[in-house]
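step 4 of 6: structure.
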Amino acid sequence: MRSHDQRAWFGVLPVLVVVAFSAVIPLMTVVNYSVQDIFDLSSRLFVGLDWYRETLRDPRFQAALGRQLLFSALVLAIEIPLGILIARSLPRRRAGARGNQGAGLWLVVIAIPLLIPWNVVGTIWQMFARPDIGLLGRALNLGGLDFNFTAEPLHAWIVLLLMDVWHWTSLVALLAYAGLASIPAAYYQAAELDAAGRWQVFRHVELPRLRFVLIIATLLRLMDSFMIYTEPFVLTGGGPGNSTTFLSQYLTSMAVGQFDLGPAAAFSVLYFLVILLMCWLFHVSVMRDDDTGGSGGT
Amino acid sequence: MAEVVVSGLAHRYPGAAADTLAGLDLAIARGEAHALLGGSGAGKTTLLNLLSGLLQPTAGGIRFDGRDVSRLPPRDRGVAQVFQFPVLYDAMTVAETLMFPLRNRGWKRAAARSRAEDIAGRLELTPWLGRRAATLSLFQKQLVAIGRAVVRPDIAVVLLDEPLTAVEPATKWQLRRVLRALQQELGATMIYVTHDQTEALTFADRISVMHAGRILQTDTPEVLYEQPAHEHVAHFIGSPGMNLLRGVVDAGAYRLDGYPLAPAPGVAPGPCIIGFRPEWAALVAATAGRSGVARGAADPAPGPFSTLLPVRVTATRVLGIEARRPVGLVTAMLGDQPVRTRQAIECAPGDGALLAVDPERLVAFRDGARLGA
């Protein structure tokens, strides 16, 4: 006999209420806005999916989405390998050795960028890259390069990528370091006895055991870089032209700047769905071969 | 496969006050199954790491077939190791894992493949050659790890560091049997580290009993059992361990409670530890008197030393039935010292009895070392 005590649901009620007010109700409000044309708070008109159609056909939306995808792809392509490289080169405790040989200090040093508020990061790089007074910009110009990130889209992108790499590679490095530190020394000993080279140790010992850590790191960086707002807003303001205007900034200019609540709401829902879709695709692609033994990484 | 000779080997960890291993001498024959047996802190793993090259000796040397390897890096020593838990390359198939040490040493793919298949066949892993090692059971994973250790025909010595630790108890004996059979088939020199005397006694041709960074005795299981060279060996080997009682050497005899037990020719008088295994002694009923014959394994010959010592039975433990009589362990008090015998159980706690010890097999120690051997 199994007894079902329905009173247990009352125990979950507080959580449901909190989630409803913090997530479900705001999200549904946005969905509600996205299907109406709002003139002011008392006069509104149901327009169905018109705003969605309009948003998807909007060349500025398409361009911002394209820039966003390119930015995230570049950020991941640089930060993940670089983070692993940094984590691998940090000192690690090996069998027979006493103490952790100062890794703690290094971890603190590389974690510093993570502690800086995002708008401050933008400001730091804005000054650093300025061609007239910035250390980087001035040095490049003195070195004969005609560098001006406020005028040249390519230069703006380079500064933006440098800034994001500087800001976030530490996160990947810290996660990868934690993953590497959890590999028992016996695996390295076995590889040494099997005469494995450095690349083989990485390929056959470290990478398989870093798999889950790297999935987490990639997901975090993918979502974060896809929603980037503060740093480019401070650094370039979306310019020159629209060359560094990403989705969130375009959305803000629509919703806050022009008060187009209906189209902005449709935009928000689409934005949300795109992120959800990418995370799902990523999840499916990395978990696909699990039935043949993905549990090895645990 | 190689002969392993260790001479004067010592190791001290950096910053440590004392040597972890001091002045170790050991010779292991080609194709021998050798066990390093000892409790934790005995120095077994340090010795293993010195053999594999993970640690460098602070003194002494290691020779494989006469070649001094003590300063060579691990990969150049021709050593393979099986660890406490299965250490495998997660993303590789069983076949790739077995071929890996060969391919890294320049074997052609076809040759490596056929050698890997041969080893897999001996370990009954053939059906899993194409499977990823990470998907196998612990037992099979450890088999793969053993296979990878023995796959190189030119390996000098295979080191096994408590290889049964991670395997379920039910399959431990099976893995041990497979390992022993493989060792004999390949004629591999194997060094097996364990704290479990059953594993050591059933696996090894010879055993080195280690304690506090020294090898106390190296010999066959039989000799270790019958003729322990050190008090610790007597205590460590056998289940239950040997009876070790405080006695004295006086007037040319080993004595307990003043009673002479066996002659002690040429041994200086003084306190000693007298040892005998439970099956080398027997209790007889108090009424049997001094002329009575003890039943059980011991059959003390008549003579001046076939002494019967008065004891009081405190506990009995039946281990089985033989010839319709319960047999097992009897614990009795000789003065304030407990004594255990293995025999037919014909007494009950509280009974008075007489203890007879086989004087031929009695061993004695002073300051840990064997007396009169």
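step 5 of 6: annotate
 - The mean pLDDT of chain A is 84.
 - Chain A has one domain: 67-89+102-288.
step 6 of 6: archive
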